[in-house]
Amino acid sequence: MTPEDLLKQGDLNQALQLLQEQVKKQPSDSEHRIFLFQLLVVMGQWERALNQLAVIKELDDSAIAMVLMYRQVIACEQYREQVFGGKKEPIVLGKPEKWIALLIQSLKLIAEDKFDAADAMRKQAFEQASAIAGTIDDESFGWLADADERLGPIIEAFIDGRYLWTTLDNLNAIVIEEPADLRDVVWLPAHFSWKNGGENYGLIPTRYPFSYQVDPLLALSRKTVWQETAPDLYVGYGQKMIATDQSEYPLMQIRAINVTHAEMHDEGA
What is residue 267's predicted lDDT score, i.e. its pLDDT? Predict the structure, then answer.
């Protein structure tokens, strides 16, 4: 059995044990350490992953850009966990809509077990949010939202070392890279084209927060489950799901989301 074999079976603990043994035998092999770093982020062992990045930086000059990037990414993920724990607020990109503030406050109320008040705020937020139309891999939609009710129409992104919330109203398109590495089950590289003409490369969280605490297959984004943590509140674990008025889509299967803005539609009418 190799770590790769165990990973295919979803046995993260045994894969980690074997991989650690390989690293001990060949401590200067940067490829083993990069694999170990990726496995540690899947398992949510952030500090150990950062330690591996520090070693990789010393061993392999060609990996320095990756090391610097993923140091920031791990910091974003840790900040994200605090946002969902009600301890921090996300940076909101674009116009500070009132409904987004209501969703942020709802997360804080959930953390305080004030579920009725949180539910009322979420419903109020969703009533105020505008439905934005577009296409998802060439399939049309009238509205799009995260299937997790804590987020709804919010798009999560890691850009330039910051954890951001934004909405489709600020975007022209998102192009999501096809998963290629183990770390992609945690964060997917994406290209954001903004309504104002700007562009950014960044990452989208592939899975819901704290998925690594629940089940190895959820940590690996191989499935999605919903836990009713309170009446009418279903919290997602595992791979992020995107819902539209037409269907639901696992994030890792989406390659492009294109937005149809109302003013663009009017000009062409």
Answer: 42
